[in-house]
Design a protein that fits this description.
Radius of gyration: 23 Å
Mean pLDDT: 91
Number of helices: 16
Largest sheet: 2 strands, parallel
Number of domains: 3
CATH class of the largest domain: Alpha Beta
Strand order of the largest sheet: 1-2
Strand content: under 5%
CATH superfamily of the largest domain: Ribonuclease H-like superfamily/Ribonuclease H
Length: 315
Amino acid sequence: DPKKISELDSIVELLANPATVKFIHSPSEDLEVFDRWLGVLPEPLFDTQRALAALGRGFGLGYRAMVETYTGEIISKEETTSDWLRRPLSTQQLSYAALDVTYLRKIGQQLYDTCADKGRLEWIFEDTRRLGVGGRGPAAKFRSAWKLTDTQQQILNALIDWRESEARRLDRPRSWLLPDKVMVALAKRRPTHLAQLGTVDGLHDSVIRKRGDQILDTIDRSSSLSATLPPAWAPPLTVDERSWAARLSEVVKQRAVELDVAPEVLCATKDVERFIQAFVSQQALPPELLGWRETAITHQLERKLSDLIARSSAP
């Protein structure tokens, strides 16, 4: 029970120790807990779920399925719906929590060694380094943000990051700080004074008093950076681009067969679309398609898309 742990320095030291690899299965939620509880993220981090996918042993495989596959043991689901906020935790809950890591070290070491033998260890480390906390989850809700100008998009993106950080720090809902529609209004208006914040419908006076300066500073800093950054949101694909996306997805599938991995490991559908938009607009490619993926799939996608564009332009 982490609430009973008072001495945290040793845990922080372990998580930050670069000489100790940390095994976690599907760590996104764990990272949020570590960040909020300890203010540190584990490094280096080996995600056993990603390792399974990189070895062609199932995409998005859950912990229970992994344990059953590697040990034959079946972990009960009985405690998944119990009240984990109530204290003290029951003996059954403590046992269930322990089982969540009991098999992880042994299976994780097997996967680690196999990835090392196949030259795919860096695949895992590189992808987990990009996980961080928060990600693009909150930003994905703003589906019409592509209609904003580039500068407005950068402001909105910065406000999303600020709101996410503040909401975690204060342990409050995002909308309690800034509702989504207020964020869009701020991005469009680009206020520079506290008095101007008061004219934004839905922005509460208490937020202006306590955090108005932070909001204005976030808007100002993101406005000055916008010229050097690509748009945070892209418009929907055109008819031609949708056709190209289908062809590129076939390239991904074929390459996945060659490497014996799930296609999603190489390039998810959303990343194919982002790749096309970046390539056509001559913007920087998505970071998810750099690193180890450059030789694994990105160069093939570049050649194929160049050919498709050339054919569509031919008389």
